[in-house]
From TrEMBL:
Belongs to the drug/metabolite transporter (DMT) superfamily. Small multidrug resistance (SMR) (TC 2.A.7.1) family. The keyword 4Fe-4S does not apply. The keyword Membrane applies. This is Multidrug efflux SMR transporter. Keywords: Cell membrane, Membrane, Transmembrane, Transmembrane helix, Transport. The chain crosses the membrane at residues 29-46, 58-78, 84-103. Its main location: membrane. It is found in: Cell membrane. It is a multi-pass membrane protein. It holds the Pfam family Multi_Drug_Res. It comes from Vitreoscilla stercoraria.
Length: 108
């Protein structure tokens, strides 16, 4: 169940960050509201996850997946491009999340 809660926290954070970009510095009302609500939802579900899983593992996965997913969203919806070093760095982040999931006993 903790992994489902963490997934919700990650998705809410990606939605909130996308809305933050669309809010144009909090000058557009609805994206601004979505950003604030999204971050509240994200932190709430993140806090629930912290009841059962180690903080370091949770934060590594939450932030790592957030970076990779928001970069994909920014590429698709905001036409932002990343150079090769940025893509390689994100590949390493994703590899780190996979290593934690497959080999770490801390999260199980």
């Amino acid at each position: 169940m903790a992994w489902v809660l963490l997934t919700v926290a990650i998705i809410a954070e990606v939605i909130a960050t996308s809305a933050l970009k669309a809010s144009n510095g909090f000058s557009n009302l609805w994206p601004s509201i979505l950003a604030v609500v999204g971050y509240c939802v994200s932190f709430y579900f993140l806090s629930l996850t912290m009841k059962t899983l180690p903080t370091g593992v949770i934060y590594a996965i939450w932030s790592g997946m957030g970076i990779v997913l928001i970069s994909a969203v920014a590429w698709v919806f905001f036409k932002q491009r990343l150079d090769l070093p940025a893509l390689l760095g994100m590949g390493l982040i994703l590899a780190g999340v996979i290593v934690i999931q497959l080999f770490s006993k801390a999260g199980h």
